[in-house]
Design brief:
The structure is a homodimer of 329-residue chains.
Chain A lengths: L10 H12 L3 E4 L4 E4 L9 E8 L16 E7 L5 H11 L5 E6 L2 H16 L4 E6 L17 H14 L4 H13 L1 E9 L2 E2 L4 E2 L7 E4 L10 E4 L3 H13 L11 E6 L5 H17 L6 E5 L8 E8 L3 H8 L2 E2 L4 E2 L1
Parallel strand pairs in A: 3-4, 3-5, 5-6, 12-13
Antiparallel strand pairs in A: 1-2, 2-4, 7-10, 7-14, 8-9, 10-11, 12-14, 15-16
Helix pairs in contact in A: 2-3, 4-5, 4-8, 6-7
Chain lengths: 329, 329
């Protein structure tokens, strides 16, 4: 394991110190591990709070700022934050118009955010939750689909709607519509290595890939030989469109996302291949975002997220934002 | 070699197709490999043109747009673009106020941009050049210091000054001052693999790092054992400050840059370590940018760039920009 760290146990805290140093617009509560906006919104607005295990940066800490999240609570690597930290994030973020929890569908996150919501309600906070479950690789699990790239689309669109002064129920309803319109699928060329264990989540031969992998190194649908990007993209596009083809009025938002160790030039090669395969299906993206936004430590590979956006979602996607990882002028 | 590509020979062209698909604000001339703004500036302004070998993305193609470059010409992987392509970029970009070439100090780039400048002058274009040579790892080479991270600072500050309507000579002079105020140094945990050769630029043992590495896998000052991020950062900070300590009136701009395969969480760990070491030297960054901006294919590691900025440079650093890789609201 070769990593730029001090010790496996200090990675999350050290990274938060670096985040705070680089982004004075963020307030970082190091003790409770809560990242919030240094300058609160002018008046009451619905507060967006998200979080989950660390190791997926910039998700979620890099999306705190005007137009997106009000607070994020990062857990240990690949481990949900405990309920009291989530509660602390809700307290830091609530400006009087209620709090929306954006939760990725993993057992620990679902449980801890639910407990935090109960604790927050006891303290008089109004809390609603959007559960993100966009990963079509998992089909028959009792826990349902995993939450991955669609989280970014929910952060961006719901964040913009909250900024416009919409009510909590309205923002939650948009979030659920975005989730329903979103599907994702990922391919890994190499698993990430959790510094706590020092070993990759799984081993692949020099010519093997994991198709349908999760962002914590969860195994996928199958193991295959590495193929040219055009063929891989076709597999991934077909999986994402299966059973969720955008309608004639939809204006798809496409996210070509790197898993952490894949350089941008390869993501652009994948983007070209994805765009071409979508065209073969008659699907024309309205917007395409390319970069590493939902990562899996130093895993190599990519995920594709497609949101069959309506006009409102697209307008909110384009709205101003000012966060470490996503800025819209 | 595991990469998301179609074939080694098509990487640059495929990536340009993806770039064009994701960024409709860019015009891509696929035949001549010139990336320029789809919408030209309203009136004549100094045009910024840069380029160099591919494999360093988002440099330079990701910095084309309002507030930064007017055009970029990407060469083959790690290979300078030929003079006629650079000329084509200058032609595409010149709006009547002259063209500033921003050139990294490598033999091929220097030669080809010089030839292109001569060709452009013959056609009536006014051309000036800023040569970027910030990498202090190279001390005694006849070719001088290599150009790396400072290129981003030159793109951003000169781009903003050009946007304000400054004259060619004024923008060139600023660029030279930024270069003179900038120093960089890089450490690699793994070399990048050029798909044309299929082998990494050099081999490192599981516990080895290359200290003072170049962005084309050029060897550094020495090979060392991997150490904790705090110690590595101290080495790098000390190298960057050696002989170029910011003066009392300077407001340092710091770039903590990933080499391509290093995930953001590690870069934030490095950022914390760099900030702490700078504090020990009495240096307080005015701005810190963290991310992978000047890469070396899928090399793992980081570089540090420090620009001892004056008030004008800082103001220009903060000015609006709207490019694929850097947006300022």
């Amino acid at each position: 394991m070769k990593k730029l760290i001090n010790s496996p146990g200090s990675v999350v805290d050290d990274a938060l110190v670096g985040l705070a140093a680089a982004h004075p617009a963020l307030a970082v509560d190091f003790e409770r591990r809560v990242v919030s906006r240094a300058v609160c919104p002018a008046g009451p607005k619905v507060a967006l709070v998200s979080g989950g295990g660390s190791g997926h940066e910039p998700l979620h800490i890099g999306f705190v700022g005007p137009g997106m999240l009000d607070a994020a609570c990062p857990g240990e690597l690949f481990t949900s934050p405990p309920p009291d930290r989530i509660l602390a994030a809700a307290q830091a973020a609530d400006s009087g118009a209620g709090v929306l929890f954006v939760v990725k569908n993993y057992t620990g996150d679902v449980l801890n955010f639910r407990l935090a919501a109960e604790l927050a309600a006891e303290q008089g906070h109004r809390v609603a939750t959007v559960l993100v479950d966009d990963d079509v690789a998992v089909r028959d699990s009792a826990a349902g689909r995993r939450g991955t790239g669609a989280t970014v689309v929910v952060h961006k669109t719901c964040g913009a709607l909250a900024e416009r002064g919409a009510a909590l129920e309205e923002v939650r309803e948009l979030g659920e519509r975005v989730v329903a319109a979103s599907r994702s699928f990922a391919v890994a060329l190499a698993a990430g290595t959790n510094p706590e264990t020092g070993r990759p989540g799984f081993d692949l031969a020099e010519d093997e890939i994991e198709v349908g992998v999760g962002i914590h190194g969860e195994p996928g649908r199958r193991r295959e030989r590495l193929r040219p990007a055009n063929e891989l993209a076709a597999t991934v596009v077909d999986a994402v469109l299966e059973g969720n083809r955008p309608g004639p009025g939809d204006r798809p938002i496409v996210l070509v996302n790197g898993l952490g160790a894949t350089p941008l030039i390869e993501l652009y090669v994948v983007c070209a291949a994805v765009t071409a395969r979508l065209a073969e299906h008659g699907v024309t993206p309205a917007r395409t975002l390319v970069g590493s936004y939902v990562t899996s430590l130093d895993a190599a590979g990519f995920s594709l997220t497609l949101t069959a956006a309506d006009r409102l979602m697209l307008e909110l996607w384009d709205a101003p934002a000012d966060t470490p990882a996503l800025v819209r002028a």
